[in-house]
Amino acid sequence: MMADKLQEVHRRIEAACAQAARPVESVTLLAVSKTFGPAAVRDAFEAGERRFGENYVQEGIDKIAALGDLRARIEWHLIGPLQSNKTRVVAEQFDWVHSVDRLKIAQRLSEQRPQHLPPLQVCLQVNISGEASKSGLAVAEVIDAACAVAALPRLRLRGLMAIPEPAASFDDQRRPHRALRELLGALQAQGQPVDTLSMGMSADLEAAVAEGATIVRVGTAIFGGRG
Ligand SMILES: *Cc1c(COP(=O)(O)O)cnc(C)c1O
Questions:
Q1: Which residues of 207-216 are buried (b: 16+ CB within 10 A; e: fewer)?
Q2: Phi/psi at 192 (5° precision)
Q3: CA 214, chain centre distance (Å)
Q4: CA 184 to CA 178: how far, in whole Å?
Q5: Ligand 1 surroundings by CB, under 6 angstroms
Q6: What is the rounded distance in angstroms from the CA atom of residue 7 to the CA atom of residue 31?
Q7: CB atoms near residue 141 (< 10 Å)
Q8: Radius of gyration (Cα) for the chain, nearest Å?
Q9: Whose C-alpha lies nearest to ligand 1, atom 13?
């Protein structure tokens, strides 16, 4: 069941890569396990997945603990909102944070990242569709924020993340993903060694891969509906 769904998602990624003339290794699947328990993560691990995304800090921490025997073999990514009073456990427990949306959070994560661990891998979340209700940096803030975050010693700035407004047509799905890619290009043109575009979910991963996604974050298509 789980293995079939995973196979189908990998097949979609492969087809999208072929369509875009991109090597399939250039896109990494992040399995978004939010609201599903440790048993579901273990099933996906047994089917070959090694990278999991969590939205809620406490739920993620609990799952990391419940799957302690797999800790060295799983990469845990926080992809949901992060408040400043939760940064310490995140700096101590996660490998990646995709949802850094202000400098204060980045500074705390850097100060709190334990010395015995490698730098925390981070992306800046961008409000690419400019929605009033959405978190993320405004496009105009991204270059300055990236310079400041890149200078923090215990973080490694990897790139940009976005959750575009849902759109029905393929062209409308591509537009915000293209805008995020262009923003990453602007950072690279300034000499930032960034390589990651975290974009694309169950409904729009093909459009994201067409525009250069390097990490697609897929939940529903792997684990089923969240009720
Ligand atoms: C839930 C979530 C996903 C996965 O969405 P699906 O539509 O279930 O694939 C990806 N990214 C973020 C930030 C999410 O919160």
A1: bbbbbbbbbb
A2: -75, 130
A3: 10
A4: 10
A5: 32, 34, 55, 79-80, 163, 201-203, 217-221
A6: 12
A7: 16
A8: 17
A9: 79
Cα 194 to chain centroid distance, Å, stands at: 14
Q: What token pair was written down for 12? A: 């979609």
Q: How many whole angstroms separate alpha carbon 121 and alpha carbon 156?
A: 5
12 CA distance to ligand 1 middle (Å): 16
Concatenated DSSP letters for 170-225?
HHHHHHHHHHHHHHHHHHHHTT----EEE---TTTHHHHHHTT-SEEEE-HHHH--
Q: Are 86 and 57 in contact (CB under 8 A)?
A: yes
Instruction: Extract the residue ranges of the chain whose pLDDT is less than 50.
Output: none
Instruction: Locate the ligand 1 atom nearest the alpha carbon of residue 161 and give its number.
Output: 13
Report the atom number in ligand 1 closest to the C-alpha of 221: 9
**What are 29's two structure tokens?**
């699947």
pLDDT tens per residue across span 58-103: 999 999 999 999 999 999 999 999 999 999 999 999 999 999 999 9
205: closest CA among 12, 23, 32?
A: 12
Cβ neighbors of 90 (< 8 A, separation 6 or more) are: 57, 78, 82, 97, 109
Q: Which amino acid is at 29?
A: L
